[in-house]
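**Entry details**
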Amino acid sequence: QLYTEDALKRLPAELRTERGDNRILAVALKLRDERREPVVFVTKDTNLRIKADALGLRAEDYESDKVSLEELYSGAAEVMVSGDEVDRFYSDGYLDLEGDYHPNQCLTLVDAANPSHTAIGRYQAALKRVLPLVPVPKEGLWGIHPRNREQQFAFDMLLNEDVQLVTLVGMAGTGKTLLALAAGLHMTADENRYSRLLVSRPIFPLGRDLGFLPGDVEEKLAPWMQPIFDNVELLLGSVDEGGKRKRGYRELVDLGLLEIEALTYIRGRSIPHQYLIVDEAQNLTPHEIKTIITRAGEGTKIVLTGDPYQIDNPYVDSSSNGLTYVVEKFKEQDIAGHITLKKGERSCLAELAANLL
């Protein structure tokens, strides 16, 4: 038995011995002092690693589930082809293409002789074929039109029922959440492809926690869900082709087409035939992401959005969070798709801040 009262004596008086973390640290110190072999303290808890380092104990992060952001799969690539192949893609509606490409990878076909002559499509790995993107309606999706090529790629996967898991990674202002909500509302309220749009996000504060909040569950969650409410209100404020205002937020909720809730209550649920959006997924651990994805019932589509550079969870970082973990693990699966959004569209100020600060 490793744990003894003698081990606790090795801790400084400032560290409370009743805390589990400190007891683990005490055992590690005991092993270091009594064994000839080097002892390495491995933990994902940053604070505990700092304590270990202060006590002269070598400490390392658990790295087996880490994914380097520099090497993270982007979901898109350019392919140099002949001008005839670009023309054939437009005329035939597909292009057979051999190569080492991932399922549902978004490809830009570039004429090697004339770089301005291009076409865009999505790679279908089973057929080794590039297919055209799912078209966006002329009026857009709830008033939202793709503003760049990456957003076109994102809309394609968000509207494709065969792609059951979509991951959107991008810095602040690239349109991740807005695109997902617009596509989700279109597929539920307009197309009736799914029974409900379920939107959720983890609860992690930016800065100091406000503490106790009064009211019922809905009132307590309102501050955390406000970013989602803002995007929904923006979409609902748009008008359709006939000049009529779209359905109101409360009407969609009352009809059962829209539900917004915290991830706290998702464990144990089975979610069939729904369009599930999880915002700020970079704040989730790989285990939490697994819990969410395994909730998906028959006919459910899951969309994970987030920015790995904006993390509020102290137990994950840009390379060990659940979002980047899923991107890497699912990149070879036919039912999954990913795109990294790079161009900010919120404002010039927001894009500069995301790049410079």
